[in-house]
Each structure stands twice: as C-alpha cells, then as structure tokens.
Amino acid sequence: MAEIELSSPPSILDVYGRAVVSALPVVGASGGSLPDDVLTLRGYRVDADNLAEYTKVCGLRFGDTLPLTYPFVLAFPIVMKLMVSKGFPFAAMGSVHAENTIEQVRPISVTEPLDFRVHAENMREHRKGILVDVVTSVNVGRETVWRQTSTFLNQQRTSLSGQPKPEPEQADVPPVPTSTLRVDRKTIDRYAAVSGDRNPIHVSTLGARAFGFPRTIAHGMWSAAAALSAVEGRIPDAVTYSVRFGKPVLLPATVNLYATREGAGWDLALRHPKKLYPHLTATLR
Q: For 2-159+169-284, which CATH superfamily applies?
C-alpha cells in the first residue's frame, strides 16, 4: 500500500465538490479494484466546541473522554477524500452506509493528539450491489486505541442479484421501549454542520428525492450515536459496537429506542413506533 500523509484535514467543501462530479454518469467512478492508498493524518487535536455541539445534538454527555462514535466525525473528511479518489470503484454520492463496526481499546482523552489511517479493503458482491469496507484506525503514539470498519453499498446488478431475499429476522421486541427519540430537520441540519456530512439525502428535499427518498433522512451515524444515550455510563472501556442500518428514518420522526442487557454488554435497536421495523440494530460487546 502507498501511504499518503495529509498535512491537514481535507476541506469538506472540496471533497463534496469532487463527490458531485464523480456521481455524474459520464465521469462517475467505476472499476474492479480498490485504491491501494493509505491516507494518514498525524497530531490531530480535538476542537472542544465541536465536541460539545456533537454531544448536544446526539443527546450525549460532554466529558473528559470522547464518545464512542465521535472519532467517526473526525475521520469523515479523510474517508470521503479516499472515496472520491480516482481509484475508488464507485461514486461516493448515492452509496449507502450499510453497516458499521467500532472497536475501542480504551477511552480516548479529549486532550490526546490523534493519528489517523484510512484505507479501503474487502470489495465483494452482494445481492443488492457491491460492498466495500473503509477501515479507519486511530493511534495515540504507537498505541492503536480505536478502529472502525464502515461498510458501504453501491446498488447495482451483480452475479448475486437474482438470489431471493433472506427471510426477515423475527426479533423479540420488548413491549415498552427504553425511551423515545424525536428527530426533525433542524436536528439533522445541526448534525450535518457539526459532522461535515452534508450529503443531499440529509439536507435537501430535492436531493433526497433524486436518490429515491420522499423526504430527507437522518444520518445513520446520528442514529448510532443517539442510540448510545440509553446506556451512557454503562459502556465498557474496551468494547466493540456493531451496527446494522435498516430502513431510513424519514424526517420528522419519532422512533423507539430499546436497550436490553446482554451479559456484560447490550443489544440496542431503533424501531418505528407503530410498525416496529428496525431503523438500526446494534450490539455492544
């Protein structure tokens, strides 16, 4: 792999400009392999004001250590820079964040300088298209303290397209949710500002409709962060947070949050309050 060291976080405006260009039919990226680049950024310092706004919009506590999901926000511009590069096999705009797994070795202090490494791997076929894992690791000195695998889906025909849909899992849904979350366009506009994720499906009604959604939708990683509000203070220091995204949360919305103890960890879910289908299912282990 070829290592490319960045001197500063990528400009999110520049990255999104490239994402729009790559999504055009004539220019859009396509290919049968992944870029072998590893993007690195060293010595990053957390902006306390940004962290405070993130915790507020996600319903989390502001403290001396980073929320489990917050390094995703810090790494997002680097991830996007990799996904809009010429060697990436599909356009970033319109791809779907299907799953996300975070492995935290220990809590990260707000004051620690952070080193990021981002690369892509494991391109494979799926019944709905092509899946690619974008892997981000965070180091403090020589110690890897946090690692994330974000799985993105580009919907297209593959050799698996004719396979039947798997039977939906019949989950035991508790009769009473742990709590209820309300989310509207104002909340998601705030999250878009603090995270840098201004994908049109989240911030533009016309943009959402262009990608097949009747209204704007909540960010999956806002949902993943907000779900942790049910178990704050009870998350192990060393933990793996595995999230599978279901049907999108159309704005405005009220969703039920379920948190069930499972051994030393938790099972989490966000569900539609009436139809009970999952917007998100997750495990903390």
A: Hotdog Thioesterase (3.10.129.10)
